[in-house]
Specification:
By secondary structure, this protein is mainly α. It has a single domain (5-61, 68-337), classed as Orthogonal Bundle (ABC transporter involved in vitamin B12 uptake, BtuC). It is built from 15 helices and no strands. It has helices at residues 5-11, 13-33, 41-49, 55-89, 101-116, 121-143, 152-176, 178-189, 199-224, 228-233, 238-260, 266-278, 282-307, 315-331, 334-337.
Amino acid sequence: MSVAVLPVLRRHRTPVLLALVLLAALAALASVVVGAKQVPVTDVWGALFHPSGSEEDIVVRSLRLPRTGFGLLAGVALGVAGALAQGHTRNPLADPGLLGVTQGAAFAMVLGIFTLGVTGLNTYIWFGFAGALLASLLVFALGGAGRGGATPLTLALAGAAVTALLHGLISGLVLIDQQAMDTYRFWQAGALAGRDAGLLPQLLPFVLAGLVLAMVNAPGLNALALGEDVARSLGHRIRLTRAIGITAITLLTGAAVAACGALAFLGLIVPHLARALSGPDHRWLLPFAGLLGAALLLAADVVGRIVARPGELEVGIMLALIGGPFFVALVRRRKVVRL
């Protein structure tokens, strides 16, 4: 996109936001229509509104609809969480996993499998969510232990330390337990397929709560971008603002990674794209990032179904293939990555 076009888009944020809603809706439609098994559009329509119990109905209603739902949920959650993480750490290379959330979820799931013999996805996913919460609390406690409280630097350092510790513990556990290794390997790749549709309504309240906290956090985050002294002079409570932001990141990332695995690059790239369209105001940046996250995740999942027919490539692999070169291009443009 031409740099000269960006200021024009930023002056017309509402139409751009509506265009992103349409883009996410089109990606969701493609996710329902396109797959490894070719289903005519007329059969997709019939499966959605006039199901007859045919094989096509099962494919659309039992496989593709839940998959699309998880893509929307995880895409919105990780897009918003990535924007929050970059804003609170003032680090353009930050993603939700920087605060230890991803490795916390992985460690708790592996530990549940290793110690309790947990095997069902519907069970160990809650271990993952609990682990994400506990890891983020530990990071926030360590980052805020000094006299100055939690700062972007201390949070990033605490997150890196906790992530490294948990990664080492995970490596030790999976080396001595084959079942834990198999589950972790599948989870680490990141996928939308094979998830029970019943998990969606269970995870949705956590994501909605995280989104509400994120929007509540937006004015404070805008003030923090001007410096902590300026934010205090404007009446913002720094520790409360940090706590709300970390809680939102934890709820959003914990729900997404527990359900769909470690979806690399999504929370890293999407905030940069959203910032290019919306500008630095987090009241606009956060919804832009959520919609772009959903559209990008679903588009990557659809491409993964097409390129390896009759099989599929996991969406985590597709995000890595798409996101790696794209992010290299982004970081080479200093104006895009500067916060």
